[in-house]
Amino acid sequence: MPYNPLLVAPMRADMTRMGARELLTAADVDAALGDARGTTLVFINSVCGCAAGNARPALAHALRHGVKPEQVVTVFAGQDLEATARARQYFADYQPSSPSIALLKDGEVVHFVHRHQIEGRPPESVAADLTKAFDRHCGAAV
User: Fold this and answer.
1) CA nearest neighbour of 101 among 112, 116, 89, 87
2) Cα separation of 126 and 15, whole Å?
3) Contact at 8 Å (CB) between 113 and 129?
4) Helical segments of 34-117, H only
5) Catalytic position from the list 8, 36, 41, 48
6) Which position among 7, 9, 50, 141 bears the catalytic label?
7) 138 an active-site residue?
8) Degrees to nearest 5, angle at CA 55 with 48 and 80
9) Which among 44, 64, 114, 125 is least buried, having the fewest CB atoms inside 10 angstroms?
């Protein structure tokens, strides 16, 4: 059973404020990731206080970096069940984790951040790891 929409509304708003596009259905995921060229960051959003409370601020900080993915999309685990399941198929080699962050380049995962890599770390530290991945895989400043 999905989470109450009122519960997740502020967490969804965090993502859209930073420019992420919500993918609500499997069709949305396929449209965004199916033939994606360039770089796409997929954020698996979550209500988990220990990790998601650091993951969203970390991502917001990382997205202020001069080099960043061309596309940022998000699905909400526990809310967008079909979309989350479909997104995870695009990075099936990685254990499902909520929250998590996948950076794809031309449809291939080039960097993945699991929940355990977020939990207990300050957002600035997680953001530093993300910006290193952006510098490595996202090319020139956008």
Assistant:
1) 112
2) 16
3) yes
4) 52-62, 81-89
5) 48
6) 50
7) no
8) 55
9) 64
Mention every residue, 6+ apart, whose C-beta is less than 8 A from residue 87.
23, 29, 33, 42, 44, 75, 102
Q: Which two tokens stand for residue 132?
A: 């290193």
CA distance 32 to 21: 10
If one counts every other C-beta atom within 10 angstroms of the C-beta of residue 50, the result is 12
Rounded Cα–Cα distance for residues 27 and 48 (Å):
26
The model's pTM is 0.94
What digits encode the pLDDT tens for the residues 31-75?
999 998 999 999 999 987 768 789 999 999 999 999 999 999 999
Burial 13-47 (b: 16+ CB within 10 A, else e): ebbeebebebbeebebbbebbeebeebbbbbbbbb
Report all structural domains of the chain as residue ranges with CATH numbers, in order of start.
Answer: 5-134 (3.40.30.10)
Closest residue by Cα to residue 26 from 60, 99, 75: 75
The model's pLDDT over 66-119, given as tens digits with 9 standing for 90+, comes to 999 999 999 999 999 999 999 999 999 999 999 999 999 999 999 999 999 999
Tokens of 88: 């995870």
